[in-house]
């Protein structure tokens, strides 16, 4: 729970989360406060990682401060500001409840704060990797826990799921981009540090745009758990039959017919694609995979031939018999998930299904 006018990007879940002051990493505003109440499941304790604490210096941190309190034990941590920073980047508490209080008066500078937390079941954090391996070999596999809420934190990523990412990328933000965790939940990720490559290509995936980047000494490559058990889990699934709510029967200026039928929806099809009848509402495209399959994601692309057509957002439904349909709600399970699609007709956009869909039919 968070309250106050000084709260920035915040995502709090029972097992992990991320919180920041308003405008972070820009200068936090004057005369604001925010109070976050972190509550973990009974029997666990909270671990807090200080990603950044940059509050203007003042005696006893009187003007701007970060203060943490453990109501179960009566223990207080802080106050913290620029001249009184936490002694360690990771604070291990003995409580399942912690109150985080940030306040500011008049000041001129300071980025504010960025803090993440996880329960004692998940001690890893994404702000520092050095404690995992200060001098890793050329290729090294390791695992780290990413808290929920990394998608919108400050920092850049370079690369894409197929190539890997520059080692200067924000690790857990890159994991969301790669589709190995859902931002709403966070989770354990497994990755390797491998030899860097000359150029990292930009890509839009899972609601994030990565940057195009140059050579790095090392790169981060994420591994899906299912791929460690079965390398075929990233294979492109064969579609036996395409079906659609409607299709466009185009007659061009020369009077020639062209059918934008469902079969043309395959990603590798050259020329025009599938398109619903103009003006059609609640249009859908249906894929029959022939048998029940484990579907871990989808890639979409527009039709760049003559017409600048593309889908900007979409819902997904699945069925095991082609009659009874279930909307995909993602990891939150509260409402139908809206996937962010394409912004032009040229590029491909990837979206991961976390958890995967087990079905024969996908709409």
From TrEMBL:
UniProt entry keywords in alphabetical sequence: Disulfide bond, Membrane, Phosphoprotein, Transmembrane, Transmembrane helix
Single GO term (MF): signaling receptor activity
Pfam families: CUB, F5_F8_type_C, LCCL
Gene Ontology CC terms, in alphabetical order: plasma membrane
Domain called CUB: residue spans: 7-120
Subcellular location, record wording: Membrane
PROSITE patterns: CUB, FA58C_1, FA58C_3, LCCL
Disulphide bonds in the chain: 7-34
Main location: membrane
Superkingdom of origin: Eukaryota
Topology with respect to the bilayer: Single-pass type I membrane protein
UniProt protein name: DCBD1 protein
